[in-house]
Amino acid sequence: MNQEQKKKYLSIKEMGQRRGVSSKTLRYYDSIGIFKADYVDPDTGYRYYDPQQYEKLGTILELRSLNFSLNEIKGYFTERNMKKSVDMLKEHYKLLEEEIRSKQRLAETIKEKIDFIDKVIDNNIELEKFSFEDFPERFIISQLNKSDKSGESVALEFMHLESHLHETAPILASDRIGFYMDFDDISEMENMDNWHTMIMCSEEMKNSRHFCVLPAGKYLCAYFKDYTADRDLFIKMFLEYVKFNNIKLKGIMIQQFKIDVTVTDDPKETIIEFQALV
Predict the structure, then answer these.
(1) Region 3-80: CATH code
(2) Cα distances (Å, whole numbers) of residue 47 to 53, 58, 147, 220, 266
(3) Average pLDDT of the segment spanning 231-240
(4) What is the pTM of this model?
């Protein structure tokens, strides 16, 4: 190819600049057969691209944005027809829709966390005040064995539970962790060995041996601060309130972390919510 003919082509640098792709990436695409240069100078090894290849490179980049693997992209351009192309696009469209739903759920979870923290900072959360709240049926996975409730042991139990989750939403961004107890006698609440680590989950986890259901209904609730230091005192306060007001509990109670080490290093800022089914 003479110099005049080369003027009709795009160099690797020119092609890359027009599509925002590095020359290194284009060389790699060439080496694996996804996007081969139309002409390679036998003397210099320089790659030259026909301007018509510009659109193909755009399609490749769009497919990459849809999470097509390089092998899938290679297959997409092999013996193409409408049926094959639309089937591949439909498959990735479904995956994209699920990713969007997942991101939306994550955004809502983080927004709830931000709103709660803002209320705490603005002193709009009433601590140690008891109220009743209706909850729908909820689901948890729980470490039901009785074990030492030292910080290290609890951390290991949460790690074990999290490994069973089939979800991508981060635990740290939500109010999903805490302790769970299913009791016969209200006095069992005072012994932390009767509490079990838990993580809120979806119903999709129902086949897990760790799966438990929190029944729908009215729950007696209260927020407590600096929980680590005054845990026994808060449990005592809760029990005294229940006995004084002759409230009948139905054997289900959780301690749900609202502000914990995921957002603060100051234990005095930690907040936990007690919820007991009545």
Answers:
(1) 1.10.1660.10
(2) 13, 18, 66, 72, 59
(3) 85
(4) 0.66
